[in-house]
Amino acid sequence: MRHPLHRLRAIATTATLMAAALVPAAAPQATAATAGIQVYGAWQCSNDACTWATVRDMADFDHNNHWLIDRGDGRPSVNLVVLSFVQPLSLLDATNDAQTADGVPIGMNSAVVDYFTSHGIRVMLSIGGITYAGAWDTALAQDPALLGRRAADIASRLGVGIEIDYENSSSPNLVGLQAFIDAYRAAHPYDATGTDPTARLTIDVAAGDRWLIPLDQYATAHWLTTANPVLDYANAMVPSKQPSTGTAESNWQEHLTGKPTYNPPIGPLAPAKFTAGLYIAEGSQVRPECNNFPASLQKTTGDWVANAAPAGAGTTSGLLGYMFWAAERPSTRGVTTDPPNSCEGGVGAGATAYAVPVPMPALRQN
Questions:
Q1: 281 burial class (0-12, 13-18, 19+ CB within 10 angstroms)?
Q2: 286, containing H or E segment
Q3: β pairing state of 321-327 and 274-279
Q4: Is 180:150 a contact under the CB 8 Å cutoff?
Q5: Are strands 234-236 and 100-101 parallel, antiparallel or unpaired?
Q6: Can you state the percent helix, strand and coil of the chain, rounding each to 5?
Q7: Is residue 157 part of a domain?
Q8: pLDDT confidence of residue 14
Q9: Does residue 365 form part of some domain?
Q10: How far apart are CA 220 and CA 266, in angstroms?
């Protein structure tokens, strides 16, 4: 995903959930082919194009985002939201100003986190976005280990995970990023059980293997292996516009196969180590992915995502699931997912069709 101000490319308690109302008769039915989807989430913007620069009135926040916690029958539409974005240099400096507290936008507070976690939805914060690629570069050059410790501290304070969205396409500071990850993992070690929300650390890569190439190559080789995982998984972000079914699957297949002819080569990525990104709000259009599941890409690509076979890495078939860009207002001038454009009929219906588990279960590891 990319920051909205630059025309984003591309982001109840358990008892209440168990007691949710029956699925409406018109809802799509779950199938065995798609029973393995474990991650089904949305990148979450605020009402100010992902800057989160004001503290939200929670009644207004609920009005704009209620579909995320209620697909229409009392159950959430997603099992993950990723609050986007934290500015890396502000985080490093622990900035406090009118829009920022301890380096984090003031709108990303415990009230927003609790809004989702009280309904069994996992929460993460995304550091970066395309607008903040330069801020990533500066922060990593100054003190990447301190940046990692700052991220770990915020994760502990809010009870969230962290997503790395570092979109330097040509010359990313991989030594610095390794130091950031090492520092974060020193505070929050890798947790295969998934029970510790602060241990969830992920990274964004391109839709396929032909952009963010150095980052993709290094992450695949060093952080996303099944034998010695460092990051939990990667998100294959949305491309410049919503793809066709065939183009989407071709992009994702590149991660599975890798690029052996590149120098250095990009190795194959295990299906269990990444998710597939789709738009729900794009420019001025409300996508079928938001409001019309039968016509959506999560419907037409569902069998492929659930059954994609390993192509040199991993032993189990099927990607982890889907991520949707983006809830509420991802762009200053584009469409929002506020009512009447809320996404129960697309994302929510897909959660029903694919029997998405809420809360998110322990993820496949190989």
A1: buried
A2: strand 285-286
A3: parallel
A4: no
A5: unpaired
A6: 35, 15, 50
A7: yes
A8: 34
A9: no
A10: 7
DSSP element (H, E) containing 86: strand 80-86
Is the Cα torsion angle 290, 295, 301, 305 positive or negative in sign?
Answer: positive
pTM above 0.85, yes or no: yes
Q: What are the φ and ψ backbone dihedral angles of 236, each rounded to 5 degrees?
A: -75, 110
- Residues facing 162 on adjacent strands: 125, 201
Distance separating alpha carbons of residues 198 and 156, to the nearest angstrom: 6
Q: Is residue 359 part of a domain?
A: no
In this predicted structure, which of 46-60, 179-193, 203-217, 321-335 has the lowest mean pLDDT? 321-335
Residue with tokens 């590891």: 365
CATH code for the domain of 86: 3.20.20.80
Tokens of 312: 């040199």
Q: How far is CA 252 from CA 212, 227, 314, 354, 356, in A?
A: 14, 22, 15, 19, 21
The 3-class SS string of 252-278 reads HHHHHHCECCCCCCECCCCHHHEEEEE
Taking CA atoms, 195 is separated from 47, 96, 200, in Å, by 31, 31, 9
pLDDT given for residue 358 in this prediction: 98
Q: Is the dihedral of CA 103, 82, 330, 114 positive or negative?
A: negative
Span 267-284, pLDDT tens digits: 999 999 999 999 998 877
Structural domains counted in the chain: 1
Residue 333 is predicted with a pLDDT of 77
In this predicted model, which residue has the larger pLDDT, 199 or 333? 199
Domain that holds residue 120: 4-353
**How does pLDDT run across 68-122, given as a tens digit for each residue?**
999 999 999 999 999 999 999 999 999 999 999 999 999 999 999 999 999 999 9
Residue 338 lies in a domain: yes
Give the end-to-end CA distance of the chain in Å, rounded to a whole number.
Answer: 26
